[in-house]
Here is the input.
Amino acid sequence: MHDNHMMLKQVRRALEHEPRIHLHQYPIRIEITGGAVVLEGEAPDIAAKKLALERVGAIDGVRGVVDRLHVVPAARRGDGAIQDSLGEFLLREPELRNCTVRVRAKGRIESLREVTANASGEIEFAVVDGIITLEGAVISLSHKRIAGVLAWWTPGCRDVINSLDVQPDEVDTDDEVVDALRLALEMDPLVQADQIQASCRDFVVTLDGYVRTQEEKRQAELDAWYLFAVDRVVNKIEVQR
Here is the structure.
């Protein structure tokens, strides 16, 4: 009991020392079970969510972190509306045009597009309480990452569980992350991709360049955070008005 109390203090201190988390505005419930830390609540954005998990996971003695954190959406929407928007995103995205797309809802699976020739994979998604789950298999890590970004972009999304398999297996590298980020930035109508340079080392992304507004700088950073397996984002982008 004493050890749990000490660990609880360490966890709370770690969260309070990370300014992106805003612990007082967005309180996180903390539970410790057998050395594992359960984090539950809402985070202001994907960066705060990932940083909270990283900070707690780095504490000496923590055996694991159970992620029950979700992101506060810009607007609350019903699962049906989220489902419809994501379906449109997946169907419209050129990078995924050769992927079969199916949606699972209320115990039924509906096909939105079937691809049989030169298929790039099958994506099946579901939305429950604003949480999007992606399942199936695609032919590359870029396909997996782009599908995940589209899910995060979907209005009303609170979290994304990206369980897409990559078949055949593909070794993940920093270059793969940069390639996917370049695609995501080019897809994003809110940023000027040609004004942003990205690099990655050990799955830590660094952004450089110039943009017009603080919101564009923030959006470019969020696009990097949305990518599967990205551990940290260093945003060196400058705003030139």
Observations:
- The chain has a mean pLDDT of 96.
- Residues 2-71 form a domain with the Alpha-Beta Plaits fold (CATH 3.30.70).
- The helical segments are 2-16, 46-57, 79-92, 141-153, 174-187, 214-226.
- The two ends are 55 Å apart (CA to CA).
